[in-house]
Amino acid sequence: MEETKMNYEDYIGENIREVRLSKGLSQQAVAEKCGFSNTMLSQYENGKKTPGLFTTAKIAKALGVSIDRLYYGDENKAFISTAPDEGRKIVNCFYALWEMGIIDYYENFVYNDYSSFDDKNKKRKQGIYLNILKYPDSIKRLIESLNGFKARKETYQTPEQYLEMILDSVAVEINHLIERDKQEEEIRKKNKR
After folding, report:
1. DSSP secondary structure string, the chain?
2. What is the pLDDT of residue 184?
3. Of 23, 63, 73, 187, which is least surrounded by CB within 10 A?
4. How far apart are CA 63 and CA 49, in angstroms?
5. What value does the mean pLDDT of the chain take?
6. Neighbours of 45 (CB within 10 A)
7. Could you report the per-residue pLDDT of 83-131, keeping only the tens digit for each?
């Protein structure tokens, strides 16, 4: 018996419309949250265009549902199950703190001196020592990359995609380090026996 494969992309538009209507939202309201026109959203809902993954993620966020809900129609019908992505959780936490202006990274921190000079602006940067116990090089690279992105954001053709690339690359790096740590722990346990 031959199994028929379902093309889930054919149903994204219907699923978007279904969720939007169930939440009592207009196309205009959802489109504004996503940063594009209601005409574009209408084209997605009517199947004239298929949103890419990044756009689907924006729509899912605007509707308060998962991407699986829009892609598969029901989160329980998703055939892809993913393991928890610890690296992405770590990156998202640091990104949220950075975006809110709570954390930053700068060199030449002096312990017990809660400020240092910023050579460019000749101002004192305030801060405290934050001891990052795991993956400090990756987290430093993340914050440096975010600072560079912020300074040059207008020069990128698709800044949201570039930002996502930064977050993904550091998350992958941290996931590799987590896996390495797990393997080293297993070896230590075996050697203790």
Report:
1. -PPPPP-GGGGHHHHHHHHHHHTT--HHHHHHHHTS-HHHHHHHHTTSS---HHHHHHHHHHHTS-HHHHHHSSGGG--------HHHHHHHHHHHHHHTTS----S---TT--EEEETTTTEEEE-------S-HHHHHHHHHHHHHHHHHGGG-SSHHHHHHHHHHHHHHHHHHHHHHHHHHHHHHHHHH-
2. 93
3. 187
4. 19
5. 80
6. 23
7. 457 888 888 888 888 888 888 776 655 555 445 555 555 555 555 667 7
**Structure pTM?**
0.51
**Quick check: 156 and 73 in contact, CB under 8 A?**
no
Domain chopping of the chain, boundaries: 8-77, 86-192
CB 170 within 8 A of CB 145: yes
Which pLDDT tens digit goes with each residue over 67-84? 878 887 765 555 444 445
Phi then psi dihedrals of residue 13, to 5 deg: -60, -45
**What are residue 190's phi and psi, to 5 degrees?**
-65, -40
Q: How far is CA 193 from the centre of its chain?
A: 41
- Does the domain formed by 8-77 have CATH 1.10.260.40? yes
The answer to whether 45 and 34 are in contact (CB under 8 A) is no
pLDDT of residue 26: 93
Q: What does the block give as tokens for 100?
A: 């809110």
User: Which amino acid, one-letter code, is at 124?
Assistant: R
